[in-house]
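Format notes (please read before filing issues)

Several people have asked whether sequences and structure tokens are stored in separate files. They are not. Every record keeps both together, in the order shown below: the sequence lines, then the token lines. Line labels are part of the format and must not be stripped during preprocessing.
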Amino acid sequence: MPMNRREFLAASAASAAMLNQGMTAFAAVTSNIQVAIDASKSGAPVNPMVFGGYMEPATTNVWAEMLTDRKFGNPITDAAPAPAQTNSFFRRFLGEPFKPVGPAGTVVMDSLRPFVGKHSPRVKLDGSEPHGIQQSKLRLGRGKTYEGRVYLAGDAGAKVVVRLVWGTGAGDSQTVTIPALLPEYKKFPLKFTAAADTEDARLEILGTGKGTFHIGNASLMPADNVQGFHVGMIRLFKEAGFKMFKWPGGNFVSAYDWRDGLGDRDKRPPRLQPMWSDRVEPNDVGLHDFIALCRLVGAEPDLAIDSGFGSAREAAEQVEYCNGSVETRMGKMRAENGSPEPFNVRCWCIGNEMYGPWQYGHMSLDQYCVKHNYIVEAMKKVDPKIKVTVSGASICEKSVGGAEKKGNFFPSIWEPPIAERLPYEFGSVNDWDGRLLDKCVDNIDYLSEHTYAYPDLAFDAEKQLFVDVHDPLQFRTRRLANRIGEAFEAWDRYVEKMPWLKEKDIKFIFDEWGNRLRSASGNGGGGFMRQTGMLMPLSYALCFHEMFRHSDMIAASCSTGGLRTVLTDNTGEAVGFATEGLVMKLMQTNFLNAYPIAVEGDSPQQLLPGTALVDRGTKPTGSPTYPLDILAAFTSDRKKFLISVVNPTEVGHSFTPKISGVKLRDQGKLYQIAPPDLSSTNEVGKEPAVKIVETAQNGLPDTVLVPAVSVSLYEFDVA
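Then the structure lines:
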């Protein structure tokens, strides 16, 4: 008989107490952990959209464009450009900005006759001396073909060539000669095949002769792209099993006009991203392109709408554009843009982190409640079948943000200091979820929670600061799962205060989660980019386990680094799985629509250093099998039985399983990620050090040996 979340967790706790009678709490690790699994007590199926990916900004690193600022959102000037942030994830596969070729004054930005956006470069010619623009630091692969286009207009006396250069020799380039130009802009195709590997190629657009010529925009992509997306990423995202993509943000969405991403890609206006240091957003990926990506991978779209600078009318029009028939005004526009059939987007996220003063369009909580209701009512008037996610934040999420501010993790002169002691109080002006649930409950289907953790920090309630801790690996890896657990503790408090919530089918979407690696002094930068070693993948595995345990209350999730679970070569192409990607693949392949089963044990998890309702809950997360974390489940068809074991320590352990309520066949399989040590990682161009290894099993051993730093998944047919 399926159990709800409360019954499912209570079953584990009650049986653990019986098994643990006479033991001292938080005793040393049991030499052989006793585990009991009652297969008659299963939970709700795991929603496929738990395996989601998150993308920000609109045009993401999945897009195959190689040129920076290809539509000239920023002017091309003679001034020396600022040094490029070559280590920035957002531009690591892009070239440097375009620079003029020729003496000062050769390139002028024409705002009277722009092809797209505010201005287009006009190049003055001077006889036989080549004048124009170039972009360097492009990455090419030997033997790989690149295709693109350039829009040009000019005087009859202008002679223009486009050249791709990959070396210093006379033959280290290919040239496309452009036919005679006309006063009106015309598109010219480009095609090159590189003869060398390089990270310092350049694209030149040069003219000789008399008069001037204009450059509307330029584009260059690997020729094997799939509808504009990296072919390797599409292949590996499908293999990893992403079932949902959230787009286009993130902080980005609060100043994003979705209409900028419609129509001819080359005529979509470039915009500056005010929330990300005024980087240029080319709007190459718009609604149609995002839907195409979802269909290529087999994922459901989760569309974030602008509830910052945006309005209820704009949100309603976006729903009609996506889901309306061709008889509607916006549906007709969608058809004119190439998609007669509705997109049928079911999941919509209303804004992003609107509780934060860093957010564009941020307003007081009482005002935002009104705006949320206006927006959702307008959207559901267009399509009553959609599901909406409120821009929520539990006391826990708000308190973590306050702790970050107290530590000045993300310096900003625009954010006021935090005077209150943390954690924030339920029912206070900082209780964002409490107020939204009270005032907007009829306009909430899903509750958003952004769940970040710091493996090497704990919040000190006395100091009111994050402090460095030097914890064992099993604590460092569990901090992320603890953030999931405390969100449900907060939910239980909301239900106590507002009993009518029991009648509502509100579920969580953890639409941003991940680790941030830094010290209290600032080392590490607070980022969540991929780190080498097994810390991240073990943390991912524990986080998935915790979400599976709450399967009746979770509609979806998106790892913030979800689309970074692949390895990319020096051209930006995906070539294999990072260690986190292997965990994602293993979990998705086996736990899609699976029915989790309560696991009991005689070794309770330990309470980590930190502060309740800031960086952890009041009780530990995980199965009572410390230091292991064990989760059992039936597959979606109930024909297979699964036991997933995470060992987040640097030594091996063992457990003795006792399984009741089901009979298993002897022959089974073990899928295991068990690298040589904690530092093991996968690197481009090298044989993977971390793999999923499949071995046959002749029955589940009486005593199961679990290797260090490992994720093990046992699978047996149900007799």
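For reference, the curators noted about this record: Residues 479-497 form the longest helix (19 residues). The first strand starts at residue 33 and ends at 42.
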